[in-house]
């Protein structure tokens, strides 16, 4: 297992988290933090994918609306 160098302030934060979370070791605090970070990254990735999909659908709907509006205008006015 590799060691990680931490600043004194990070070491203090790690100790405080260990106490607050009632975990027996600092390595478990780091493991828990990595799980939370991985979950947050996955949520952000899914959110980006959903936004991209919604934008594509919005553009397709706008194009379809425009073509239908043009056809409706032609039908009404004959132009």
How would you briefly describe this protein structure?
It contains 2 helices and no strands. The protein has helices at 8-21, 26-77.
What class do helices, strands and sheet pairing give?
Answer: mainly alpha
**How many strands in all?**
0
Low-confidence runs: none
SSE topology string: HH
Distance between the termini: 76 Å
* Spatial shape: rod-shaped
Mean pLDDT: 90
Taking Cα atoms only, what radius of gyration do you get, to the nearest Å?
Answer: 27 Å
Characterize the largest beta sheet: strand count, sense, and whether it forms a barrel. Answer: none
Assign a percent range to the helix content: over 70%
How many domains make up the 3D coordinates?
Answer: 1
Beta fraction: under 5%
- Please give the count of helices: 2
What does this 3D model show about the protein?
With about 80 residues, the chain is mostly helical. It has one domain. Helix 1 crosses helix 2. The longest helix has about 50 residues. It is rod-shaped, with a radius of gyration of 27 Å. The chain starts with 7 loop residues before the first helix and ends with a helix.
List the SSEs and their pairings.
Blueprint (H helix, E strand, L loop, with lengths): L7 H14 L4 H52 L2
Question: Could you name the key traits of this structure?
Answer:
mainly alpha; 84% helix; single chain
């Amino acid at each position: 297992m590799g060691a990680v160098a931490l600043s004194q302030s990070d070491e203090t934060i790690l100790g405080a988290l260990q106490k607050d979370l009632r975990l027996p070791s600092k390595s478990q605090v780091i493991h828990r933090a990595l799980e939370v970070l991985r979950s947050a990254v996955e949520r952000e990735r899914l959110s980006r994918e959903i936004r991209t999909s919604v934008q594509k659908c919005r553009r397709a709907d706008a194009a379809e609306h425009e073509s239908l509006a043009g056809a409706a205008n032609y039908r009404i006015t004959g132009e």
